[in-house]
Write a structure and sequence with these properties.
By secondary structure, the chain is of the alpha/beta class. The protein is built from 9 helices and 15 strands. The chain folds into 2 domains: 117 residues, 3-Layer(aba) Sandwich (Rossmann fold), CATH 3.40.50.720; 172 residues, Dihydrodipicolinate Reductase, domain 2, CATH 3.30.360.10. It has a 7-stranded mixed β-sheet. A 6-stranded parallel β-sheet has the order 2-1-5-6-8-7. The mean pLDDT is 92.
């Protein structure tokens, strides 16, 4: 039997991804002796956060965080996380970056062995989702090209964007000026192409190239919802497209990572929130292409759950758990 001897730190546990990460650690009974919470905000003393329904004190990130913990999860904003990754005192500590900084680490690709080194970076969650869909479909027929429209929720930006979206809805109902500091435009009851679309597409496309050889065209939009990404995909194949029944069979397989929903129930993004699986809302077949409607909580499966899976894999491959 293995005993719980791993000390874990979660940096910026109050972010949306930080909250989901802590939930997944508990759901999977991660073998941690302790889970320490720190924040990386400069110029700030301790903060208060919620843990198991109670207020808990979150101190600033200490200088010895990497020497006192075996695994550190970075869940903060990219700027603050980049400063943490600029340090050179990691030692033997395993560092898993969920912030998408792309600095000083190795990108972890699912179904491949863990790269060497101690700093692991997760692919963009949208790219991970596209790659999972492409991989599943490729078991039926070679995929030639994908066009993917992605409706991005306010949680795509963070907690403050959720507050602004709520404030926008209240302002509209009250006939008051709409706040647009973070979202850039009225997002409540609206769809629009966000200002960061070009940079966002570049980041997703780069990771798609690393994860799948299938060419992918992206069409992002900002959706006036709080959580849950909606994917509408057109998928072309080399030859005739597989039947919808075959596709649903693959998506329905045990352990596939997909959850097929009945289109008659009109499922949507709200059903994906808090769900580890990618929801398959509808599959439509044509002669050489398929149309897929999907929904996913990208804070959960490609980020929080994947980060914990990487940590579990590290424990097994590198023998960090001792015999009781």
């Amino acid at each position: 039997m293995k005993r719980h001897i791993v000390d874990v730190a979660v940096v910026d546990p109050s972010t949306l991804i930080g909250e989901d990460l802590r939930a997944v650690l508990k759901e999977r009974s991660f073998p941690a002796r302790s889970i320490r919470l720190y924040h990386s905000q400069s110029g700030s003393d301790g903060l208060l956060a919620e843990d198991d329904g109670e207020a808990t004190y979150v101190p600033p990130l200490p200088l010895n965080v990497f020497s006192e913990n075996q695994i550190v999860f970075l869940c903060g904003e990219t700027t603050a996380t980049a400063k943490v990754l600029a340090r050179d005192d990691f030692g033997k500590c395993i560092v898993i970056d969920l912030a998408g900084t792309r600095k000083n680490g190795a990108l972890v690709i699912k179904s491949q062995p863990l790269p060497k080194g101690n700093i692991f970076l997760l692919p963009h969650p949208v790219a991970s989702t596209i790659a999972e869909v492409s991989g599943a479909l490729s078991t039926l027929a070679p995929v030639e090209h994908m066009v993917v429209a992605v409706d991005r929720p306010a949680s795509d930006i963070g907690k403050k964007a959720l507050d602004e979206l709520f404030a926008q809805a209240i302002a509209i109902a009250s006939f008051k000026p709409v706040p647009k500091t973070l979202l850039g435009a009225q997002s409540a009851f609206n769809f629009f192409c966000p200002q960061d679309a070009v940079a966002w597409e570049q980041a997703v496309r780069e990771d798609c190239t690393r994860l799948t050889k299938v060419p992918v065209s992206l069409m992002p939009a900002r959706a006036g919802v709080f959580h849950g990404h909606l994917f509408r995909m057109l998928v072309w194949f080399q030859g005739k497209a597989p039947r919808a029944t075959e596709v649903l069979r693959v998506f329905s397989a045990r352990g596939s990572g997909f959850d097929v929903r009945d289109p008659e129930d009109l499922p949507g993004t709200i059903d994906a929130v808090g769900n580890d699986e990618i929801l398959v809302l509808k599959v439509t077949e044509e002669h050489t292409w398929l149309k897929l409607d999907l929904a996913a909580d990208l804070l959960r499966r490609p980020l929080a759950l994947r980060a914990v899976e990487i940590a579990e894999q590290v424990l097994l491959e590198r023998g960090l758990l001792a015999d009781a």
